[in-house]
Description:
Elements: H1 5-16, H2 25-33, E1 38-41, H3 48-58, E2 62-66, H4 70-82, E3 87-90, H5 96-108, E4 113-116, H6 118-121, H7 124-132, E5 135-140, H8 162-166, E6 172-176, H9 181-190, E7 197-200, E8 208-214, H10 218-229, E9 235-238, H11 242-254, E10 259-262, H12 268-280, E11 285-288, E12 303-306, H13 313-320, E13 330-336, H14 338-350, H15 356-373, H16 378-385, H17 398-401, E14 406-408, H18 410-422, H19 429-437, H20 442-447, H21 463-476, E15 479-481, E16 488-490, H22 495-498, E17 505-507, H23 515-522, H24 537-556, H25 560-563, H26 566-575, H27 580-584, H28 591-608
Parallel strand pairs: 1-6, 1-7, 2-4, 2-5, 3-4, 5-6, 8-13, 9-11, 9-12, 10-11, 12-13
Antiparallel strand pairs: 14-17, 15-16
Helix pairs in contact: 1-3, 2-3, 14-15, 14-21, 15-16, 18-19, 19-21, 24-26, 24-28
The chain binds adenosine-5'-diphosphate (ADP) and zinc ion.
Zinc ion (ZN) is lined by residues 377-379, 393-394, 397, 399-400.
Amino acid sequence: MSAGEEPARRVLRSVFGFHEFRGLQADVINHVIAGGDALVLMPTGGGKSLCYQIPALVRPGVAVVVSPLIALMRDQVESLRQLGVRAAYLNSTVDWREAMEIERAVEAGTLDLLYVAPERLVTPRCLELFDRSRLALFALDEAHCVSQWGHDFRPEYLQLSLLHERYPAVPRLALTATADQRTRVDIASQLGLEEARVFLTSFDRPNITYRVTVKENPRQQLLSFLKENHPRDAGIIYCMSRNKVDETAAWLAAQGREALPYHAGLPAATRDAHQDRFIRSDSLVMVATIAFGMGIDKPDVRFVAHLDLPKSLEAYYQETGRAGRDGLPANAWMAYGMSDVVLVRQLLDASMASDAHKHAERVKLSALLGYCETPGCRRQALLGYFGEALAEPCGNCDTCLDEVAMWDASVAVQKALSAIYRTGQRFGSGHLIDVLRGEANERALRLGHDRLKTFGVGAEHSKREWQGIYRQLIALGLISVDVETHGFQLTDAAMPVLKGQEKLYLRRDPLAETKRGLKEARRGRGKGAAAPSLAGDDTSLFEALRRTRAELAKEQGVPAYVIFHDSTLEEMARCRPVDLTGFATLTGVGARKLERYADAFLEAIRDFR
Ligand code: ADP
Ligand code: ZN
C-alpha cells in the first residue's frame, strides 16, 4: 500500500460511503495527491469525479474544478453538499453578494471544492483571488472542449494553458470521456499536459444492452419497448427533426407517458424548464434532437432510444452513453429500416469525391451501416471501431442474446438484382417487390412489367423478407440509390453475385420485437450487467423507498438521485437493514447521509414488514 492510499481510502468510505475504488481511480488519486499531473480518459459513468474530489479533500487548500456546464455544476455541488463536503460554484447565475462570500471562503481556506466556468476563471479578479489562496489542484472537466476536433469546442478552454505557467506547483488533471486518439493528443498539447501521466481505461459500458431492431411500425415498436422494459423509467428518445420530436412527444403523452420535447427551435426558457424537469424526475421521457444531452449528468437515465439513425458511431456512442451512468442495467435501443439505409447510401454516394474530408465521412457512414447490419456482437463492433478489441462476444446485446440466423441468399439476391436491372434501374423497393411477387397491379400492367422474366419469380418470400434483402444489399454496397429519383441501381460489386459467381449470405431479420432478450438482460443475466435486479416483494419495498426519497428530495428542492442513487435503494431493498450499523454498510451511505437520512429510510423498511 502506497503512502497516499490510507487517507484516500478513509475519505472514500466515510464521506462517499463506497467500499472499493473502481478501475484506475486509486492510481489516479494517489498520483494527484502526490502532486502529479494527470490526463484521465474514462467512459461516461466510469467514475471520473472521484479522481479529483478525493484529492481535493486530502490535499490542503481549495480544489478548483473547471466545468463548462452550469446545470452540471449546480448538481455536482448539491451532491457534494449532501455528503457534507464544503463545495460552491462561481458562474453567471451567482449574484455578487454570494460571490463575495465564496471568494472570502476560498481565501480563508474554508472551502474544499470550487467549481468555476472557464470564462470566469481567466478573469483578473479570479486569478488574483487564486494568487492569494492556497490551491489543492486544478481539475479540467470535459477536457475535450479544448480540442478543435471535438464536437463541442469551447474557445475559452484554450486559455486554460495559462494555469500551468501561473501555478506550476499546483497539480492539474484533465478529464474526458472522448474516446478518439486525435482529441486526446490535442488535449495534452493545448493544455501543456504532454508530461502528465495518462490514465486510460476501457471504454466499454458493460451495463448497457445494445439492441438494433428492424423498423416496421416504429411508434408501436417504441411503445412496446417502453411498456415491456421501462414502464416508469426516465429515458431519452432521439429523433432527427424538430417536427418528429414534437409529434413523438405529443403522441407518447397521449399514450399516457410523461414526455416532453427538446430541440433548438423551442424558446430557451422552455428548453431549460424541460431539461430541469428531466433531471429531477425519475420517470420522464425526453424526446429530443441531438441538441439535447451535452452535460446531462443524470445517473439514472435507464434507456436511450433512437428512432432515426445517429450521425455516426461516435455520436451514437456518446448519445447512448448517457444511459446507465450509475452502473445499473440500461438499454440502448434503435429502430432502423429501409429509409435510413437509403438516406445513408445517398450521402455516401454523394461523397464519392476523393478529398480527405469526404473520405473520412465515407468511412464513418460505412461503419455505421456495418454496425446496424452486423450478425456479430454489437459491442465488439463498437469497441473495435474505437480501436479496442473485446476478446469474447459480450452476451449483452441483441445479436448475442438472440442468435442471428444467416442463410444462403445467393438465389434470392440474383432475383432481387435482376428485377432492378430488367426494370431499368429506376425503381425503389416497393415496385421491385411487387414485380418479384407477381402483383399484377395498375403500375406493373401500365409499364408492361408483368411480361418481364422476373415477374413473379419471388413469390416464395414475403414482402417483409424482400425488404430485408434489399436493405442489406444497400448496406453492403451492391445497390446504390439515385439521389433524385431514389431508384435502385446496381454497383460493380453486384456483378459477381448477379452472374452466380459468388455466394452471398444474409442475416434473417428476427420476426417480431424479441422481448425475451431485453428482459433477461434487465434481470442481470447478461454477463456484463452490473447488479442483479430485484425480485418478489423487494420490488414493492424498492417502490416504497423511492417514495420516501421523492418526499425528501421535494422538501429540499433537489433531484432525487442526490439523496441516494437507485443502486443504493436497491441494496436497501435487498438487505433490509434494521439499524444504523446495518444502514451504514450500504454502498453510497457515508457519515453525513447516515446521520441525515437513515431514520426516514429505516422507518420505511419497518413499515413495510
Ligand atoms: P463520470 O464523471 O466518469 O461519468 P461519475 O464520476 O459521475 O462518472 O461516476 C458515475 C457513478 O459511479 C456515480 O454515480 C458515482 O457515485 C459512482 N461511483 C464512482 N466511483 C465509485 C466507487 N468507487 N464505488 C461506487 N460507486 C462509484
Ligand atoms: Zn454482444
